[in-house]
Design a protein that fits this description.
By secondary structure, the protein is an alpha/beta fold. The chain contains 13 helices and eleven strands. The chain is globular, with a radius of gyration of 19 Å. The strands form two sheets. An eight-stranded parallel β-barrel has the order 4-5-6-7-8-9-10-11, surrounded by four helices. About 40% of the residues lie in helices and about 15% in strands. The two termini are about 35 Å apart. It binds NADP nicotinamide-adenine-dinucleotide phosphate.
């Protein structure tokens, strides 16, 4: 099947595989992460995360993205527990981190087995190399991915944070084994449009590689709830200063205005819909059922091309 083949308005095909995913996925970095997201500080609990999972699934989301690195494995444990308890068929994407102590391609198999054990599953749908870091070359990681695929432990192969040149290299290595790269997971939102400019988005579209867009709400900024007067907590507050929060307000205003014209959609729903309109699959992080419910409202409708163009211009003005 073709890349980004729309099975319906709300489902697409992952790469050139037979795997059908919802046009919006849920990211689970915050599910166990204390350092960045404050898991364990009492602002959200495992019960909140379970409710977020169940709400998303109940509203047609079947794609969940995790990683061995998230919460040092806690995210995989929680996700696996929720999936088994629900009994619902979901598509699980996880990732192998190229830690510097991983010195050969054999370490991928060990990492995968540990992820499978935490998830409580016999195979994962999509296994991604988290970053293109040395010392192990991309070719070696892709050979290890191909081995895992041939052994039936993974249904599709992905990468994350790979540049255009690195994506090509991964694709070429897999092609020599008769396989295809299914996805590249990269940061993409109205506030981070690098992949539109460096050719990666076009390359992926042309080669049947699904772009999975991470931080599609710019870590919550595009919800409109963070302003110079109410900056985000923790590391995000230091990363996005008050001046930047002030600069994005016209864009937030336009998201709000466009949302109203679509039956009172929120800025977050419009920002997620913009990603879909660009041909990528947003992976949105949620901590509660309320956030999951708010974000699934991005499904079931589409922005007009004129609105996408207006949002592009408003985003350009922020930079
Ligand atoms: N491959 C990689 O290197 C990489 C890197 C980063 C992320 N990711 C993946 O992408 C996923 C999503 O990225 P992200 O979590 O960085 O950013 P995001 O999806 O842009 O933002 C998520 C955060 O925004 C807030 N939020 C979400 N929906 C909301 C709503 N409807 N109303 C109000 N607030 C809302 C929540 O935080 P607050 O409530 O605290 O504001 C939530 O944790 C991750 O979970 C992970 O799976 C991958």
């Amino acid at each position: 099947m073709n890349p980004m083949t729309a099975i319906s308005a709300d489902t697409v095909v992952l790469g050139t595989t037979e795997i059908v995913i919802s046009a919006l996925g849920i990211g689970t970095w915050a599910w166990g992460d204390k350092w960045f997201w404050g898991y364990g500080s009492g602002t959200y609990t495992d019960d909140d995360l379970r409710a977020a999972f169940e709400t998303a699934v109940a509203h047609g989301v079947n794609l969940f993205d995790t990683a061995e690195a998230y919460g040092r494995g806690r995210s995989e444990v929680l996700l696996g527990t929720f999936v088994r308890a629900s009994g619902r068929p979901v598509i699980i994407a996880t990732k192998c981190f190229p830690y510097p102590y991983r010195l050969s391609r054999r370490s991928l198999r060990k990492a995968l087995q540990a992820s499978l054990s935490r998830l409580g599953m016999e195979r994962v749908d999509l296994y991604q190399m988290h970053w293109p870091f040395p010392p192990v070359p991309i070719t070696a990681w892709m050979e290890a991915m191909a081995d895992a695929y041939e052994d039936g432990l993974i249904r599709a192969i992905g990468v994350s944070n790979y540049t255009l040149a690195q994506t090509r290299q991964a694709q070429d290595t897999l092609a020599r084994r008769g396989l295809r790269l299914a996805s590249n997971q990269v940061e993409y939102s109205l506030l981070q449009r690098r992949i539109e400019r460096n050719g990666l988005l076009d390359y992926c579209r042309a080669n049947g590689i699904t772009v999975l867009a991470y931080s599609p709400l710019a870590m919550g900024l595009l919800t409109g709830k963070y302003t110079p007067a109410t900056p985000p907590p923790g590391i995000r507050g230091r990363r996005y200063g008050r001046a930047f929060l002030a600069r994005i307000q016209p864009l937030i205003g336009l998201l709000r205005e466009i949302g109203q014209a679509h039956g009172n959609k929120t800025p977050a729903e419009v920002a997620l819909n913009w990603v879909m309109g660009k041909g990528a699959v947003p992976l949105v992080g949620v901590k509660t059922a309320a956030q999951a419910l708010a974000n699934v409202g991005a499904l079931g409708w589409r922005l007009d091309p004129d609105e996408v163009a207006a949002l592009d211009r408003a985003a350009d003005a922020v930079a």
